Amino acid sequence: MITKTLTVALVGNPNAGKTTLFNALSGLRQRVGNYPGVTVELKKGQFSASGLTIDLVDLPGTYSLAARSPDEMVAVDLLLGRRPEEPRPDVVLSIVDAVNLDRHLYLTSQLLDLGEPVVLAVNMMDTAKAHGITIDCQKLSAELGIPVVPIQANKGIGLDALTKVLLEAAESGSIPRGPTFPAEFEKEVTALQEELRDEVPAFLTRRLLLDISGHCEQWLVGRHGSQLRQHLDSARQRLAEAGFPVPAVEARTRYGWIRPIVAAAVKKPAVRPVTWTDRLDAILTHRVWGTLVFLAVMFAVFESIFVLAKPLMESIDAVRELAAKSFEGILEPGPLRSLLSDGVIKGVGSVLVFLPQILILFAFIAILEDCGYMARAAFLMDRLMSRCGLSGKSFIPMLSSVACAVPGILATRVIENRRDRLATILVAPLMSCSARLPVYSLLIGTFLTDGQPFWVPGLVLFCMYLLGFILAPLVALLLKRTLLRGATPVFVMELPAYKRPTLRNIVRRMWDAGYAFVARAGKVILAAMIIVWALLYFPNTDANGVNYEELISREAEPSAEVKTIQGEWKRNSILGRIGRWMEPAFAPLGWDWKIGTATLASFPAREVIVGMLGMIYDVGDEPDEDGSALQDAVRKEWAGDPIRGRYGIPVALSIMVFFALCMQCASTLIVMQRETKSWKMPAFAFAYMTALAYVGALVTFQLGRLIVDAL
Amino acid sequence: MTTLDQLRPGQQAAIVSLAGDPALVQRLYELGLIEGETIELVALAPLGDPIEIRLGNSRLSLRKAEASGISVNAECGTRNSE
To answer: What is the pTM of this model?
Structure first.
């Protein structure tokens, strides 16, 4: 038996409670739809009622159907049934906020022009009541010409009635009528339509006329050329002269229609009561108090990512160790065992280890967004960010990237403007990250602690962070001026009323972010780790043809002999040979092939460097208590070398600068690809950061050398 | 008559006209900023920019550059100042 499926499109302003309604109706039966050529993803849910299956499509929150980009056009096309992947909706469900009815009805009035049944859900009725606002839904329905259902999505009130009304609307199929535009406007639309014929429906022709330099104009004029351009320009000219300029004519027509309707159906108190939002904003957007609260909140977020995540990450690492050890017990030494424990387990572990940070960050983002504070944070930071060509919304992603760029890049979803988002994604990895700390610690501990004033180690560490903090905005500015140049985006932003976040939404966000990362990014990171494993493992026989693992197993573990064997093995591996071959390239940086090889090996994940250096310097890759064994080995090895003996500090600094600026994280690259839906961006990031790192390390070493020689 | 970016916190004003980039003007209309509406300047961000305004029960943030195209008639008798 085939059940009939109804398609309902859910449309509304951001902050109208659309997501809450969507989640309440479709529960866990949700999936995400990807569309080629655009980065926007649509959520689709399903629920059943009266024997019918209802497909609910959640369109991105928007204030109007005036599309300015291909991403925004996806929603409009879907509503008109012009998207090949989706059926035309049977009913359009418009959700509005009862407290701001006049403004929200603007979008609704546009939906009435689509030529499809529309149902209006008035959400947040309880908040309206608290404001002293009463809405006569029957009167409203009569005036608008469509069914109106009061609901409270967050409490699940009114949803059954809403479902019933949706089914009735689909059944009756009655098409509503929107506000009437001036006759002069309609005349121009008809004339344009004649030129375009059947290519586009009348709805889009109206948008073409109204949206100056909007998507429809760019697309259609691009196709039809100067004739359409001239027709369009002269039509707008005529309308302006007749006193109906675009786009003002749309606003005046729609609000002129909405105002009397709202006046008839809605009772507001004579004096607007002071609301909680008013009270909170008096503090939170205050010059002094607002800034203090903001700093405290940001600190809390940041510390949590660092501190709370740490024990969880250590647990994951511990589990990984256990799993690896268990293989050692079961299998014979050999490629398979090494592949499983060093390749696969390490690879899986390196994916899962990001999970605590991602989950914590997204929990905070969900709370801050749901309660409404996120917009205030963007408001406070906007001036600072605009100096770098970005906007306030880039602040939290950038801040999170100081702990780890992976969740930081995922967090750029809050940035609507495509170019701003790209710029933020491309510079996020420069904002230092916790994985760089082991390298800094090692080198500062080895060369910049003993015999130096007490403040030197801290200062150097701080400078390394500062390097990223200064370069990231500069590169962002450069990108916005060159490659990502474009029209200045509109920064007008709504600051939603404060409300209590719901646990359900928070958990859902955490789950979505975590799952997306593990399931999608995980596979590729694993592949990268396995490749590096192979490059370091093979060849696995020494000069005499004896297997290295054989040699190791002959010794009593652990011993200096074992470490020497391991060192020799890594030196002769494919990666080791590549490193030696590339030595001339490392020389200007003051590096030898050992440092170079270790650096090459850490391209998939920078924290690998410490273990790698350990192996190559024959100290073994198991870290000891305070890392002093490695420090001693490095000091000893370098002391005997002409360049590194004399210029130890410049070389150490050049390594740190390289790591500070280089893209050495497969996870970051994968996440970039997923978020931008293209390999161009991660490739570009990899290229520019590696180049920047190389130049930076080179300059650091050469300058350092000059300074040492001069002293 | 003045422009929105010139108002001080606590001042109320009626919108007279909107000028500027068509994309900006359209977006302002979509957010309810239309000729005749009354707005209140709530606050300036700590660094002076952007500004926060209240329109009915909605609150919006605009950069001063964007607000400079909105001509307003400041009403005398402002609400309680800070």
So the answer is: 0.82
